[in-house]
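DM from R.C. (forwarded with permission)

"hey, sorry to bug you on a friday — could you get me a structure for this? deadline for the figure draft is monday and I only need the backbone to look sensible"
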Amino acid sequence: MANRVRLVLALHNHQPIGNFDGVCEAAYQDSYRPFLEVLAEFPEIVISLHLSGSLLDWLVDHHTEYIDRVATLVDRGQIEILGGPYYEPILTAIPRRDRLGQIVEYSARLEELFCRPVRGMWVPERVWEQSLVGDVTQAGIEATILDDHHFRHAGLVDDELHGYYLTEDEGRLLRVFPGSERLRYTIPFADPSETIDHLRQIGERCPEAVVTFGDDGEKFGTWPGTREPVYAGGWLRRFFEAVRQHGDWLVPCRLSDVMDQVPPVGKIYIPDGSYREMTEWALPLPRQEEYQRLTDRLDGNPESAVARRFLHGGVWRNFRVKYSESNEMTARMLQVSAQLADLQQQEPNDSQQNDLDEARRDLYRAQCNCTYWHGAFGGLYLPHLRNAVYRHLIVAENRLERVAGRARTWCQVDAHDYNLDGRKEVRLAGDRLAAYFCPSRGGHLYELDVRSIAHNLLATLNRRPEFYHQAIVELAAKEPDEIAGAHGDAAGARSIHHQATCKQPDLHRRLVYDRWPRKGSVDHFLQPGLTLDRFRQGEGSIGDFNLGAYAATIRQQTDRCEVRMQRQGRVGPYTCTVTKSVCLKAGASRLEFDYWLDELPRGVPLHFGVEFNIAGLAAGASDRYFYDARGATRGSLDTPLDLQSLQRVGVVDEWLGLDVALEFSQPAAVWALPIETISQSEGGYEAVFQSTALMPHWEFEAPETGSVHFRVSLVVDTSAAQARKLLEIPAPSMVVTSHG
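My reply, with the result:
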């Protein structure tokens, strides 16, 4: 008989803030509910369960029976509830005050629901830095799970990973369990006997071993191709039966059982890191390609295990370098967090404290990690998740402005390093809009918040090369039967990371990469006669204004604020000066862009355009559409348009109750084109509509003065959304009295 092996099964169930109800419901029906039903049949199988706070809140609202069932299994000792930060942020990405606040608040919520102390926690995406120990323990947590990948980089080898360790920071001790990567790849992708054999071999070598499995609960039914084998094919039931059959030496344990019954193996300090795949995704594309070539060469090499112990990928924080959009969201989140902390120090009254508490909840929701990174799972490429982050940040900021005592109408201009790039950006903010400009990068408008509907019109995403794009090209070259054979099912795949399928045809033909940020007020000098098709491919630029630095000055008046940006730059072989002034008035829902083009070459055909990308509006729906100056509908938002001689063009999203129009002082030709990324998700490769690019452009020859002037007005109308809100407000009850 093998030596006793304690098996910790820890499941992490999560749905991000902003996910669609239908997606959450499908995960409930495919994974969460059936897993508990099977587990309840095996009372000797105990697990540690983590539900992220965003998922817990959804379950409380939609499936209280699930919460009740979990509570029943907690009461009989079959489930131990793990805590963590409430809304699943990457702990290293948020301020320390928010780490503590999120963990403490979620522990209190779990203890209220399940009437048990929370001792262990789940570290979101297992993103670790040693300094977290102090914050985690101060929040009352005793233990957590990290990948064995972390421990190998600290110098440990296989048979030193079958237990748990103490780690320390500033004198505070935390128990850390190494989660087995081998089990992550066999459960549920290999026959249960493979896992049992692996555990038996560990028991034969290591007396009193503890082996920890920690992974996503969604792999039991929600991940593509897993529901059929896990439930209809009986994989989960066979796995539990196998564990029960070998109960003479294989003992399922909760995290707390091991803490109470088994001493730590020793002490360890753990390097910064995450799970192995995450460290690969965080690398810049050229380094990611080098990393893959290196690991491919190691496969089959007898020294592979040793080499991999010292091979480290990237650092999670560098997603903010790899994706500027992630950095913009993070910097915005930090701005709101700092504003909240400042106002909290000012002895608020009860009404103000209520606003601060609600703002803190919205801030915490906006810190949900999924939107800030991209890999097989990260949601940066999903517009509805980016919209949710900005929605909660804007709602939080609206509350904070009220606590700060803002007048009913106001406007203000500030210059500050808002995006944390070492240079100053400019913010024009008022009671209706908040606009962020980056003078050092083309003078772009990179965020435009519509306060009334809490929507950032510039929550865009650039099309950029990704490591897996080559796989899409290679997949397209295969014959259909080869593709079908490559997909397989969950039982035959090594993991979700090794399943490849295209969710739409001809994705390889739609791989296009942007040469400038898809933002607002992007200034273009173009080849005369340039066509929409060529511009759509990123061709035809003959100037350096779309990325060049502008000098900026700001001006504040009582009811008006302005930023003026100027650059002398290149137009083909010529130089000219572009000055653009942007004005916001108190109480207004419009930005006025005045352009002065000076020192233009005379007698030379010129072509100038100003690009605006509008994000967060869905494509292909009949209630989201373009319209022209006469109010005529010109197609859905995924329709390329080449319109002539307009003084107004707009887009409408009836679902949001939003109308965004561009008005021109001089008739303009207008190009409209959909911006669509080709990205990776759990289900495979897919095209995702990101934004609508609208570009008024003018072809002309400069007058003798060498100067021309254009005005572009960006007008936002949310009256439909406001009317809808009024309809949702219940009428006041009428008290009728009778007189006898």
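R.C.: lifesaver. Residues 324-344 form the longest helix (21 residues).
me: no worries. Residues 484-493, 733-740 have pLDDT under 50 and may be disordered.
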